[in-house]
């Protein structure tokens, strides 16, 4: 087994889908179960680890999240929570989808949780037409069907056009 | 009870209380002081927040002339009384105003939602939820959708509707820990427009304390203008049971029973009550509803009691109480159905001190003094 995990100063290199390389401290990389398993299974840390599904912009965000969570002690949960909400605050839906994909691929459960929750919360308090646009979902209702569903749930739509 | 009061409350944390007095089931005595938290569980907190009191639910009962009962076993409620009407505004937002009467609160504990079935068939139904995400990740997101927001989601497209409004999805959310505890209330609502009701209209509303979201329960299809009057509503494992009382428009006594299921968000008509009954006591445990007292269609006060098995949709008569009790309050505590106070036909509103309880195991009624 790799004994290198014990050495916090060691770094490894991740390579994004668009070819950018990121030098990451090992204890930060361990936030990802995928990377942890790779290191446990004796991958040489000298190798560049390719992440073909994650672009540089997303990977930078993911590593920012990992660094914050790796560096913070467990007693600073409140600080982490405010970091998390600030981290996602102005993110558009495309970036959130990329984060969910990356968090899922790299197996970073905390990040998957907050990004998926953020996406779900987007649906709250929005008219359904806007939800369709945001998620690029095609409307397959006939106008009559839509009116019927709307009528069934009319209490939910007070205040919406 | 030491004295007669028409406004009283009962709680199932091991005490009955009445104005500023509480009856300790364990010690079997009455105490003339309030204890903080006597209302039991989270209800005290919720009621406190809304009314801005710090003395616990009981002071709300006293100070606001709200009568009724606080229950347990996943159930807490406050029953309203007195004049005035409450005005709610902006139900779809979190800025809601409750000006006066909070008519009844049913607070559901974690036992409210039934345990979901072990597995959820997810293979074929969930296709292409989000065009830009794999299905399992789209489901990860939608699983975190609030119960209220699912109605908006249902309007987006057919697939979302089929998913979000399905019982399987509800159980999936329950299993993964994404359902929220609701507080269900009966409130008098200011209704806009012309409705054939000359009295405040009563509606069921829901508040999710965790997310601070308000919602309404759809009206019972047979009662579009509001709930019956002087009826009862209880909750059991993700269901609400509405029964008896008077038709809100004609004021005719009714025997109707309706069950609302949170899993599907819909009302289902069930087997009628054996006879018309209003102003009665009701409580529930393990999907069985107990009713007792109240009065019949001729305003004769009743001592009779029945139980209703929600799953079997079946009414069964119980032995009668020792005394007739109109406008009594009921609560299941442990293995006993307690019926508190009330008055006989001849007494005309003069409430009694007596309390009796039905042993679910023993099958007979006993006065509280004998307990």
From TrEMBL, chain A:
Q: What range(s) does the SKP1 component POZ domain occupy? A: 11-70
Q: Biological process GO annotation list?
A: jasmonic acid mediated signaling pathway; protein ubiquitination; ubiquitin-dependent protein catabolic process
- What SMART domains does the entry give? Skp1 (SM00512)
> Which pathway does the record list?
Protein modification; protein ubiquitination
Which part of the chain is the SKP1 component dimerisation domain? 109-156
Entry-linked CDD domains: BTB_POZ_SKP1
Protein name listed in UniProt: SKP1-like protein
From TrEMBL, chain B:
Which SUPFAM superfamilies has this protein been placed in?
A: F-box domain, Kelch motif
Instruction: State the protein's name.
Output: F-box domain-containing protein
Stored Pfam families: F-box, Kelch_KLHDC2_KLHL20_DRC7
Write out the GO biological process terms.
negative regulation of cytokinin-activated signaling pathway; regulation of phenylpropanoid metabolic process
* Highest taxon in the source lineage: Eukaryota
User: What InterPro entries does the record tag this protein with?
Assistant: F-box-like_dom_sf (IPR036047), F-box_dom (IPR001810), Kelch-typ_b-propeller (IPR015915), Kelch_1 (IPR006652), KMD1-4 (IPR044595)
**Which residues are in the F-box domain?**
133-173
């Amino acid at each position: 087994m790799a004994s290198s995990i014990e050495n916090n100063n060691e770094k490894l290199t991740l390579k994004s889908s668009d070819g950018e390389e990121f030098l990451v401290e090992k204890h930060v990389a361990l936030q990802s179960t995928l990377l942890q398993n790779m290191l446990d299974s004796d991958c040489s840390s000298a190798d560049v680890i390719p992440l073909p599904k994650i672009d540089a912009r997303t990977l930078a965000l993911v590593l920012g999240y990992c660094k914050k969570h790796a560096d913070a002690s467990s007693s600073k949960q409140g600080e982490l929570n405010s970091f998390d909400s600030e981290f996602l605050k102005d993110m558009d839906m495309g970036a959130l989808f990329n984060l969910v994909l990356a968090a899922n691929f790299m197996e970073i459960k905390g990040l998957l949780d907050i990004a998926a929750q953020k996406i779900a919360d987007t649906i709250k308090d929005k008219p359904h037409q806007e939800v369709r646009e945001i998620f690029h979902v095609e409307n397959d209702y006939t106008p009559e069907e839509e009116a019927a569903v709307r009528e069934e749930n009319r209490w939910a739509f007070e205040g919406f056009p | 009870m030491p004295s007669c009061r028409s406004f009283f409350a009962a709680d199932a944390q091991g005490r009955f209380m009445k104005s500023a007095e509480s009856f300790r089931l364990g010690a079997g005595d009455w105490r003339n002081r309030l204890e903080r938290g006597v209302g039991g569980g989270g209800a005290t907190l919720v009621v406190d927040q809304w009314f801005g009191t710090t003395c616990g639910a009981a002071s709300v009962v006293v100070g606001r002339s709200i009568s009724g009962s606080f229950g347990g076993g996943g159930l807490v409620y406050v029953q309203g009384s007195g004049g005035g009407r409450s005005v709610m505004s902006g139900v779809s937002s979190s800025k809601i105003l409750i000006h006066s009467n909070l008519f009844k609160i049913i607070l559901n504990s974690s036992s409210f939602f039934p345990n979901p079935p072990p597995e959820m068939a997810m293979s074929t139904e969930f296709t292409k939820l989000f065009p830009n995400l794999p299905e399992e990740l789209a489901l990860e997101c939608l699983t975190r959708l609030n119960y209220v927001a699912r109605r908006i989601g249902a309007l987006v497209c057919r697939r979302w509707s089929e998913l979000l409004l399905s019982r399987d999805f509800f159980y999936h959310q329950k299993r993964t820990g994404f359902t929220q505890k609701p507080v269900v209330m009966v409130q008098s609502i200011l209704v806009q427009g012309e409705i054939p009701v000359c009295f405040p209209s009563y509606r069921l509303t829901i508040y999710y304390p965790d997310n601070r979201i308000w919602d309404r329960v759809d009206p019972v299809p047979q009662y579009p203008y509001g709930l019956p009057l002087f009826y009862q509503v209880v909750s059991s494992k993700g269901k609400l049971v509405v029964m008896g009382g008077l038709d809100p428009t004609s004021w005719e006594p009714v025997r109707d029973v309706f069950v609302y299921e949170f899993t599907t968000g819909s009302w289902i008509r069930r087997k009628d009550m054996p006879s018309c009954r209003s102003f009665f006591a009701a409580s529930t445990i393990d999907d069985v509803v107990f009713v007792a007292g109240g009065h019949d269609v001729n305003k004769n006060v009743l001592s009779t009691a029945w139980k209703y098995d929600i799953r079997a949709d079946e009414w069964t008569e119980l032995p009668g109480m020792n005394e007739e009790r109109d406008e009594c309050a009921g609560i299941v505590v442990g293995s006993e159905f307690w019926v508190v106070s009330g008055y006989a036909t001849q007494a005309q509103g003069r409430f009694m001190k007596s309390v009796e309880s039905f042993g679910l195991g023993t099958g007979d009624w006993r006065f509280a003094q004998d307990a």
